[in-house]
Amino acid sequence: DKSTFVIHVNGQKHRVEVESNTPLLWVIREHIGLMGTKFGCGVAQCGACTIHLNGNPVRSCVLPVSAAEGSEITTIEGISEDNSHPLQKAWIAEQVPQCGYCQSGQIMQAVALLEKNKKPSREEIITHMNGVICRCGTYVRIIKAIERATL
Ligand code: FES
After folding, report:
1. Which pLDDT does position 94 carry in this prediction?
2. Is the C-beta atom of 101 inside 6 A of ligand 1?
3. Domain ends where: 27, 59, 78?
4. Which atom of ligand 1 is nearest to the CA of 133?
């Protein structure tokens, strides 16, 4: 059975009518139309679907919409309107993406780190980014870009 949920995404309220166990990822993509958040594995193993829930990185493929109601959700589209976030600039400068598919998840994971820790060490960066999978193997450039953004 469908129910109505009011969810807050990037500062805007959206009313959606879905089943309560619908993953937030589908609501973001199919109902709200924000396509920057990607579906990779669907079982919380890859990180392509990472968004922020009240500032914390979470995997939206396994978060039911009912658990997201009342929280502030931020997607890659909410980070900046024009790629002006320091991490986005660093990503461009370091030419991080290859195929690009996982990169919004990578950036969302990185943004969450810098919001809590302005000057993470290389070790802290590696630990925090661990588990967001990139099949092209852009990890070295990801770390460089995060370090660049903290300069
Ligand atoms: Fe959500 Fe892989 S799609 S973790």
Report:
1. 98
2. no
3. 78
4. 2
120 lines ligand 1 (CB under 6 A): no
The tally of domains found in the chain comes to 2
Q: Which long-range contacts (CB under 8 A, 24 or more apart) does 33-37 make?
A: 34/9, 34/10, 34/75, 34/77, 36/75, 36/76, 36/77, 36/104, 37/75, 37/76, 37/104, 37/105
> Using a 6 Å cutoff on CB, does residue 128 contact ligand 1?
no
Domain end among 78, 105, 133: 78
Mean pLDDT on 43-69: 98
Whether 133 lines ligand 1, by a CB cut-off of 6 Å, is no
Encoding tokens for residue 143?
């770390």
Please work out whether the CB of residue 39 comes within 6 Å of at least one atom of ligand 1: yes
Residue 12 structure tokens: 């805007």
pLDDT tens-digit profile of 88-137?
999 999 999 999 999 999 999 999 999 999 999 999 999 999 999 999 99
Which pTM does this prediction carry? Answer: 0.97
CATH number of 111's domain? 1.10.150.120
Nearest C-alpha to atom 4 of ligand 1 is from which residue?
44
Ligand 1 centroid from CA 40, angstroms: 5
ipTM > 0.85, yes or no: yes
97 and 122, same domain (yes or no): yes
Q: Domain of 62?
A: 2-78
